[in-house]
Specification:
Layout: E1 2-4, E2 9-14, E3 17-22, E4 36-42, E5 46-50, H1 60-67, E6 71-75, H2 81-84, E7 92-96, H3 100-103, E8 107-108, H4 121-124, E9 129-130, E10 135-139, E11 144-146, E12 151-156, E13 165-169, E14 173-177, E15 184-187, H5 193-209, E16 214-217, H6 227-237, E17 247-249, E18 254-258, E19 263-267
Parallel strand pairs: 5-6, 7-10, 14-16, 15-19
Antiparallel strand pairs: 1-2, 2-3, 3-4, 4-5, 8-9, 11-12, 12-13, 13-14, 17-18, 18-19
Helix pairs in contact: 5-6
The protein binds zinc ion.
Length: 269
């Protein structure tokens, strides 16, 4: 089943799972990870929305229509701009403690001011400063959202960002956020790779513990199987060997390296 909205594309993946897609390349062509996947998980009494997108058009009315009488909980998988700019529409946002500060103040989008895309005018009217949500609630590794019948466990997965989380349901889904997806992969500086690899090892073990987990990344294709995590792990391990092929990509202040499955942007700072 598929419904088209003007800006978002909504599809029903399962009885209790919707995907709300948004194309982030509309904001600047350097962002190629279309679509951004926001997920809405429906329990019996509550629903959990994963991320709030680019904040260009109202998201809340769409979620309200889908959740019926349920209480809505909203979590940011991490605080990069494409996952949080709709926060101001919602009263309360859950976020990992390492990134609370980022979403507790207006978010500065000045880096988008020279975008060739007309749509950034919607940010310009706000002076490229997007207000935060009213209340920010802190979560940590092991926190559990009880939605009624469905529970969702927070797994702290630092690397892509210090407070990145993945979310594991008791119904066999692992939402991998920006920690793992097939596409342009944003990594910290090379000295911090051990932390990224440790996170991926943790997820590989999780996939071994729970048979047939379905992986739902925050960008591009879904669902994936655990091969995604091993592909990414092996790819990152191999970056050192490809180091001489790196190119500078100034917009992201990063080194760009490509292999046959991923494009990596490795932070210089
Ligand atoms: Zn993202």
């Amino acid at each position: 089943m598929k419904d088209d909205y003007e800006h978002f594309e909504v599809s029903k993946q399962k009885e209790y799972l919707y995907v709300i897609k948004e194309n982030i390349s509309l904001v600047h062509p350097v962002y190629r990870n279309d679509p951004l996947n926001m997920y809405l998980i429906l329990g019996t009494h509550s629903a959990l929305l994963l991320d709030t997108g680019c904040g260009l058009f109202p998201l809340k009315p769409i979620t309200e229509k889908l959740i019926g009488e349920r209480k809505l909980l909203v979590v940011n998988t991490h605080t990069h701009w494409d996952h949080i700019l709709g926060n101001e529409e919602f009263k309360e946002i859950y976020v990992h403690e390492n990134e609370v500060q980022v979403v507790s103040k207006p978010y500065d989008l000045w880096f988008l001011k020279d975008s060739p895309c007309e749509i950034v005018k919607l940010y310009e009217v706000k002076n490229f400063l997007i207000p935060p949500a009213e209340n920010i609630k802190t979560i940590n590794d092991g926190y559990i959202f009880d939605l009624g019948k469905i529970t969702v466990e927070v797994i702290h997965c630092p690397g892509h960002s210090p407070g990145s989380i993945c979310l594991l349901t008791n119904t066999g889904e692992l939402f991998t956020s920006d920690v793992a997806y097939y596409g342009d992969t944003f990594l910290p500086k090379i000295n911090d790779f051990p932390e990224v690899l440790e996170t991926l090892s943790k997820l590989i073990k999780l996939c071994e513990k729970y048979d047939n987990l379905e992986l739902y990344p925050s960008h591009r294709i879904y669902p994936c199987d655990k091969t995604l995590i091993t592909d990414l792990y092996n790819g990152i391990k191999n970056i050192e060997k490809l180091w001489d092929s790196r190119k500078s990509f100034d917009f992201f202040e990063a080194w760009q390296i490509d292999d046959d499955k991923f494009r990596y942007y490795i932070s210089k700072t």
